[in-house]
Specification:
five-stranded parallel β-sheet; binds flavin-adenine dinucleotide; FAD/NAD(P)-binding domain; alpha/beta; 35% helix; 3 domains; Polyamine Oxidase, Chain A, domain 2; seven-stranded mixed β-sheet; 24% strand; single chain
């Protein structure tokens, strides 16, 4: 009698879930079975096709300090190389882009991250430059202060004046609360070890060294100046991964939402999925469950007696949601080489502007059209989230016209995409997160990975690393999940210890 293959039920077909499934097909005999609630592949890292124009949900840079992740991407989609892999001739290719993003403030564009150049000081003016320098020196002289909030962290690193000039408004737009209410962890992940001192060092490096992968590796993430980008947007890579999973025998079921998860005595699970079109429910047995669904919803879906304290912490977790408005235009008033622009003007609600033509010229259907994305941060159910699509489009066009990016009469077409739970927040009950972690870790065959799956501000590479480690732990019978939780907690530590 042949032994039945074990099954790993994977919740979600975003980067985390797809990487886990792909790794299982490569390193084990365990059958991956992905259930994806939506009708698309790629999660937040998908690409939306709008009449042949490809919209990226936020502009996804493919950058990692991990050699394994870079090799994984290279294996899936080779990087361009004019001799052998020419994007003009082939489709399955990653473009290599030189990063350029700037901050719009006082109607002027400042290089982001802020660089010590003459242009920066000229734009700021003598008085403001003096105030920034004086407040930074004051902070340095005042010694080490306790860093309890994100505002404390920003001031500690940059001084009060620089923080108020370049970080406060955008950060508060993202989170919808004051920087005083946010834990410093988000800043530690977002700006890593970036500081005025690092910025000076970077300026020196930029002047004296040419960019090589070794130098990139030693740079702070915010300062990285080169990245990969699939010719047709991030979804291209994830759709290709899905194809490879299916070719290797894995299964991906779209439009199937996991609504209940019952842990059984032998550590396996009964998983209930609901067809999003018919409402029909069915139950499937899984030896393992790998989850990228939001932790809050996972706790709600657990069909067992969840302790009250765990329930309370899960219910108190906060997420921030996101709207991107894709606008197709005949022309831009300001022709700019930036991939994206941070909008720091306090009277404008838009948080960031994506210039998709500068990510890849292959994202538009018709060459010559301008394809941009206006990003707004909000909370599901709030006034902005509830605006009708035509109102959101009107707001974006109006703000872009105010900032003199474009002429409203040049708009050809537009699309609105709402992305719930785009950002897991480091406030609310996040302080008590270890209560949830300890409880969920007690289910031997349940593995939490990815961004909302671990409630971490993870990029694609972190989400992938957590998936790879979950598979390694399953294959090698490792019970502790500490290695997964370490990802993106100790940036340098997490790689490349994996697989060694
Ligand atoms: C604006 C923005 C910009 C970003 N830019 C970058 C960048 O430049 N570089 C970078 O590396 N990363 C970037 N990221 C982060 C990146 O998008 C995430 O790290 C990545 O998509 C997380 O992958 P994931 O698989 O964990 O989760 P997701 O991408 O969230 O995928 C989870 C999937 O699970 C599905 N799901 C949820 N609940 C259920 C359920 N109950 N049943 C079945 N399916 C379910 C969802 O539909 C979704 O498809 C950005 C994120 C945002 C919001």
């Amino acid at each position: 009698m042949t032994k039945q293959k074990k099954t790993a039920i994977i919740i979600g077909a975003g980067p985390g879930g797809l990487t886990a499934a792909y790794e299982l097909t490569q390193h084990s005999t365990i059958q991956p079975l992905i259930f994806e609630a939506s009708e698309h592949i790629g999660g937040i890292s998908r690409t939306v096709d709008f009449k042949g124009n490809k919209l990226d949900i936020g502009g996804h840079r493919f950058f990692s300090k991990s050699d394994s992740i870079n090799a994984w991407w290279e294996n899936m989609l080779p990087s361009e190389d004019k001799e052998k892999v020419n994007p003009e001739q082939i489709d399955d290719v990653m473009l290599i882009k030189q990063r350029l993003s700037r901050i719009l403030f006082l109607s002027k564009l400042f290089i982001y991250p802020i660089q010590l150049r003459m242009e920066t000081f000229t734009n700021l003016g003598l008085f403001r430059t003096f105030k920034i320098a004086a407040s930074y020196i004051k902070t340095r002289l005042s010694g080490k202060n306790k860093i309890k909030t994100l505002e404390d962290l920003f001031i500690h690193r940059f001084g009060k004046e620089l923080y108020q000039t370049f970080f406060k408004s955008y950060t508060e737009k993202v989170w919808g609360v004051s920087c005083r209410e946010i834990k410093p962890e988000w800043g530690s992940q977002r700006i890593k070890n970036l500081s005025v001192a690092k910025t000076i060092l970077h300026a020196l490096k930029e002047n004296f060294l040419t960019l090589s992968s070794t130098i990139q590796k030693s740079m702070e993430t915010s300062l990285i100046s080169q990245f990969r980008y699939p010719k047709y947007g991030p979804g291209q890579l994830w759709e290709l991964t899905a194809k490879r999973i299916e070719e290797a025998g894995g299964e991906i079921k779209l439009g199937q939402k996991v609504v209940a998860l019952q842990p059984l005595k032998d550590s396996t699970f009964t998983v209930t999925v609901e067809n999003q079109q018919t409402g029909e429910r069915k139950q499937i047995q899984g030896n393992y469950v790998i989850s990228t669904m939001p932790i809050q919803e996972l706790i709600q879906a657990l069909d067992t007696d969840v302790p009250d304290d765990v329930q309370k912490v899960a219910n108190g977790l906060i997420y921030r949601d996101f709207i991107i408005i894709g606008l197709l235009s005949k022309e831009l008033k300001k022709l700019m080489p930036d991939q994206w622009v941070y909008i720091q003007e306090p009277h404008i609600r838009m948080g960031r502007l994506q210039l998709f033509n500068n990510w890849s010229p292959y994202l538009t259907r018709d060459k010559g059209n301008i394809w941009i994305g206006a990003e707004y941060f909000c909370t599901e159910g709030d006034i902005m989230w509830e605006l009708a699509d035509h109102e959101l489009i009107a707001m974006a066009v109006d703000e872009l016209a105010q900032m003199e990016f474009l002429d409203k009469f040049n708009i050809i077409d537009a699309i609105v995409v709402r992305q719930p739970k785009a950002y897991p927040a480091y406030f609310g009950t996040y302080d008590h997160f270890p209560v949830i972690r300890e409880y969920l870790d007690s289910f031997a065959n349940l593995f939490l990975i990815g961004r909302n799956g671990t409630h971490r501000y993870n990029n694609m590479d972190h989400s992938m690393m957590s998936a790879m480690l979950a598979v390694e732990n399953i294959v090698n019978g490792i019970e502790s999940k500490d290695n997964i939780w370490e990802i993106n907690a100790q940036d340098e530590l997490h790689e490349d210890k994996r697989r060694n």
